[in-house]
Design goal:
13 strands; 17% helix; single chain; 6-stranded antiparallel β-sheet; alpha+beta
Length: 188
């Protein structure tokens, strides 16, 4: 019986580790993907997703949350991953919308983690819990997606991308980024 319980625990931990949440940083308010934005795919807990270029987002959403997870979704104010501006618990939902931006980044953690009275969310057990990392995907208002990781690694000017997205650019307006274009379009 102990073997079965231990096996169930190990397989449960493996399933939890295999599941992760998609975070959407959205330029348009109301958690709309129509204004373009960034996606942090398969994001792990206690890591903040931010473009790290002083960019603010009107809203953010957390998608594909496993039903048995109880997370605290966090929208960070200020540049990058600053103090928490808005937070919500998942309470069994697979989607959370944060609309009280502007946000500099998004992150989440598990509600059932041990809290130390008086400690902040950023410093549990004497270590940082919110590291800051860049998103994986950039998408335009028309749904065209780009590999943002490859764009950043190639040293492309991300400021140019932000201004193009803000002006409602389509893929035709950005031929120099075609090499980074993903085959799949985001369903808007």
């Amino acid at each position: 019986m102990q073997f079965f319980a231990a096996g169930s625990l190990v397989s449960g931990l493996c399933l939890t580790a295999a599941s992760a949440i998609d975070l959407h940083l959205e330029f348009a308010g109301g958690c709309s993907t129509n204004g373009g934005g960034y996606i942090c795919q398969g994001w792990n807990p206690d890591t903040c997703c931010s473009v790290n270029a002083g960019i603010y987002f009107a809203s953010g959403s957390f998608r594909a949350i496993p039903g048995n997870w109880n997370i605290q979704a966090r929208g960070h104010a200020g540049l990058n991953c600053g103090p928490i501006r808005e937070q919500q618990d998942s309470a069994g939902r697979d989607y959370i919308f944060l609309g009280n931006g502007p946000f500099g980044g998004l992150g989440y953690g598990f509600n059932n983690r041990k809290m130390i009275r008086g400690a902040t969310l950023n410093a549990r057990d004497g270590e940082e819990t919110e590291g800051c990392a860049q998103p994986d995907v950039l998408y335009l208002p028309d749904g065209t997606q780009y590999n943002y990781t490859a764009i950043a690694e190639a040293g492309q000017a991300t400021e140019e991308l932000v201004s193009l997205i803000g002006s409602g650019a389509s893929a035709d307006d950005m031929p120099s980024f075609d090499v980074f274009k993903l085959d799949e379009k985001l369903v808007l």
